[in-house]
Design a protein that fits this description.
With 384 residues, this protein is α+β, with helices and mostly antiparallel strands. The protein is built from ten helices and ten strands. It is globular, with a radius of gyration of 21 Å. The structure holds protoporphyrin IX containing FE.
Length: 384
């Protein structure tokens, strides 16, 4: 569909069938005033509700209103349909408490225990200028101009309260989040999203994505505001695709654990056949290799953990050696990063054969509040 509701139990842009394009921005809050922060979130909520419904950022739109004032919308989406635009907001740990323990906005007592500082994973090569942030806004749409327009107008509305810290443009989805969607491909050329958590799996989504009320009861702070929300893990993962492109098909398939054409597990079957890790080949080695990505990321190797992956391909120009600065901007929504991301990433960073071709260059973890209820438009109101 071309339009998704902005209001609801959960924010849109999570189980929404993954759109084709992404523009994501992390912000640093510059104001020291709690009232300004609340006002910013209120402005953002109002604008996001309008933009996702195909309206301009303000009531006049880009081409009317007071002639001697700048228009209340920038205009580049004027003739475009909403293109399935969703806008999803999240809060970084630094909004609640800084690294040196400062409580900037009187929010320290609302910091959820699970909004941790992510540990250093083996082989991480993170650029601080592409990492973290107090606030995050994920805009997804089937038209890149619509997604960029959304971030541009929200950033404009943040003037004096928050500035952009880093952004990421994604041009091709690397996941499907509904069984109705065709599985797309990542820049290694493999189908990505086959075994992803899908919106149709209601109880699995409840278990692995949304924060349950019980989490607040177990929390050392007051985190009830996050019930029905989720956590967003963002990792900018650069691929050394020039090296990958000189690797044999045999090696590529072995590292992933699936065939390149069909996306079937190397243990046999078709795309949606479950991998069988016990099947061995003539040399008595398992057909789905011990260091293959699919084996190491599979729920059976991870205490049953699943995640809702919603990443995008990126290509940000090239480096001084003429290599593309390209890869996968990994986005995943999980109920608790301590159980649903950190252990898996540790295992992958240590043992995954794909890591030879990967470098994590950016990182963020954000608490994503639940949806805005019908009628009252105040995003994260309980958290502020
Ligand atoms: C599955 C590629 C990073 C978690 C897959 C599949 C591919 C793939 C081709 C098989 C198809 C599918 O089921 O979607 C990649 C690439 C990555 C990457 C190229 C980096 C550039 C990650 C990271 C994580 C992760 C960082 C989590 C920490 C998973 C999971 C599955 C999966 C959970 C499904 C496993 C299953 O249930 O069979 N990935 N992945 N991946 N990946 Fe990744």
């Amino acid at each position: 569909p071309g339009t998704y509701p902005f209001t609801g139990e959960h924010q849109a842009g999570i189980v929404t069938p993954a759109q084709d394009r992404l523009y994501l921005a992390a912000f640093d809050v510059t104001t020291k005033d709690r009232e300004d922060l609340v006002a910013l979130l209120q402005r953002w909520t109002t604008i996001a509700a309008r933009l996702t419904q195909g309206q301009g950022a303000g009531p006049f739109g880009p081409a009317s209103g007071p002639y001697d004032a700048p228009p209340d919308d920038t205009g580049e989406a004027l003739d475009l349909p909403p293109a399935g635009l969703t806008i999803t907001f999240g809060f970084g740990r630094s909004l609640f408490v800084t690294a040196d323990g400062t409580d900037r906005f009187g929010l320290a007592d609302r910091l959820p225990d699970a909004l941790v500082e992510l540990p250093h994973f083996p082989a991480d090569n993170l650029d601080p200028a592409r990492s973290d942030g107090d606030l995050v806004v994920q805009a997804c749409a089937d038209d890149p101009q619509v997604a960029v327009h959304a971030i541009r107008n929200l950033s404009r509305a943040a003037f004096g309260a928050a500035t952009i810290r880093w952004t990421q443009l994604g041009y091709g989805r690397t996941s499907s989040t509904s069984t109705a969607q065709r599985t797309p491909r990542n820049l290694f050329g493999f189908k990505d999203g086959t075994a992803n958590l899908k919106v149709e799996e209601r109880s699995a989504v409840d278990e692995h994505v949304w924060v349950p009320a019980a989490a607040a009861q177990a929390d050392s702070h007051d985190s009830a505001w996050l019930t029905g929300g989720t956590y967003l893990v963002a990792r900018r993962i650069r691929m050394t695709i020039e090296t990958w492109d000189r690797t044999s098909l045999r090696e590529q398939e072995a590292l992933v654990g699936r065939t390149k054409g069909e996306g079937a597990p190397l243990s046999g079957g078709t795309e949606f056949t479950e991998p069988d890790f016990a099947v061995t080949g003539r040399d008595d080695q398992p057909l789905v290799a011990l260091n293959s990505h699919v084996r190491l990321a599979h729920p059976t190797q991870n205490d049953g953990v699943r995640m809702l992956r919603r990443g995008y391909n990126f290509t940000d120009g090239n480096d001084a050696l003429g290599r593309l600065d390209a890869g996968l901007f990994f986005l995943a929504f999980v109920t608790d990063p301590r159980t649903h991301y950190i252990p898996m990433q540790n295992r992958l960073s240590r043992d995954d054969g794909l890591m030879e071709y990967l470098q994590h260059t950016g990182s963020g973890l954000f608490a994503v509040p639940p949806g805005v209820p019908d009628g009252s438009l105040v995003l994260g109101s309980d958290g502020t």
